Amino acid sequence: MANIPIAPTTTPNPFRGWVPFWLKTVVAFIILIPVLLINGAYTGSNIDVSSYLGVLSEDINMAYYASSAGMAIAYLIIPKVKPIATTKTIILVVLLIQVLLSLICAETAYVEIIIITSFFIGYFKAFSLIETINILMPALSPSNTRNEFYAKFYPITLAFGQLSLVLTAELAYMYNWQYMYYFMVLLLLFAIIAVVICMSYARRLVRIPIKDIDWLSFFLVSACYMSVIYVATYGKTKDWFNSPEIVFATILIPITGWLFIRRQFSDTPFIDLSVLRNRNSLVTYILSFVLMFFASFSILISSYTTSILRLDSTKVNELYLYMIPGFVLGAAICYYWFLKAIRMAWLIFLGFACFTISIALLYFQVMPTGLYEDLYLPMFLRGVGMVALFVAFAIYGIQGLTQKQLIYNAFFMISARSALAPAIGSSILSNWLYRLTQQNVNVLSQNLDTQNPMAVSQFNTSVNSALSQGWSIEDAHKIATNALYLKVQIQATTVSIKNILGWMLIFGIILLIIILLYFFQFKPVRLMRMGNDMSG
Prior knowledge:
Layout: E1 2-4, H1 21-37, H2 46-53, H3 57-74, H4 78-81, H5 87-107, H6 111-140, H7 146-174, H8 179-198, H9 215-234, H10 244-263, H11 279-295, H12 298-308, H13 313-318, H14 323-340, H15 344-365, H16 376-396, H17 406-445, H18 453-468, H19 473-519, E2 525-528
Parallel strand pairs: 1-2
Helix pairs in contact: 1-6, 1-8, 2-3, 3-6, 3-9, 3-17, 5-6, 5-8, 7-14, 7-16, 9-10, 9-17, 11-16, 11-17, 12-19, 14-16, 15-16, 15-19, 17-19, 18-19
């Protein structure tokens, strides 16, 4: 059994002496909830925000992905700040900055400002998240293992992510899109009050380590990540390489990436690239990318529910709530895995099996006459698979790493899983769907002529229906033509979605075979002890 202990380091108790253990846990969750919910842009209300500001929905997606990029890059700065600032100082400063940034997002009329503030909201989010995790460790993991901690922690974080989608959609629908920012400000202020009352004063002199940070490396990796996200998000909208902006961003990716990597071979590297030489870690980053590509099939579900089932965005966002029971079951499975000390390879296989079965169900259920209720089980299985894989990768990927390498492991993990993969995966699937739909529309339209009895019957039925409602013969023909085109569009979209799902299903089956052949030839990974970092 690969039981790798990590020697804990001594950290001062951030709470006042009178605060009992249960209240420490409550305060930690009071801080954690707004930290998990906050974003610079909320995709649940992207239609309302884009309509109000007169921008594209891609602009809101860009801001959302920028938040994840900022969060990943923050893990390169945390080692510089952590030794010189207390927990209370870090949390208070971060929460106050996020209040300010949320107010800026609520009041601005410029999407560029929302994108920039989103990056920094994600950046500061990482600082408060890692401090809150350190507080919650004793409460969530009495066994002092990452297995138990992650089996309880990841379902919470993933559930709040789905709740955020629904909450923003409901607030935007019932009131205004800015209300989500104001709601977050209230939660942040409440968390600040709890911190001030329950946490002890900082007794160490705090200095900002400006000179200790390699700002050129920070700029290069930020520019590289934002360029990747920009190309992936705006590629289809700007017609790819016909756009000078897309060409410039594409050229920027290898240049900034190469300069960043080259700089890390200096005497004082910004990041420890030796993490990439660890076999478990590298495999985990690759599979984390694949995981989020699979998770991007929500693009297909969104297209299916809006274009074929004709449901509004609020109903689509509510569908994600059915992942929460999946998170609960996934957590129970992971906890059972921990109790029985079963190897992580089986949990990885189970997670991808859930995604593969979910895609198979969608493949056979997607049809023009499909039901909204048919999507419950695929979303439930998606929830089970996500929790299982998040927990398994967090444990499997750190085997063989030293304690100093763990924080850099978090950078690579979040980069692959949260910053780059969602943007690239969504771009691939949305472009694939768009191209296939256009091809299928052309193919199906070729048969729409007077020689097609079904088309003629459909057209005549629509004309007669319009005439009976009092429309003129000219308008009736227009209505019938539009109705016929809508039928073609629905059929083309259905065929395209099933085509993509079919290829994803084949890829999922191949991946399961690869997992069986690859992982089980190595020494098992079962339990991982935890130190006070918990950054994996």
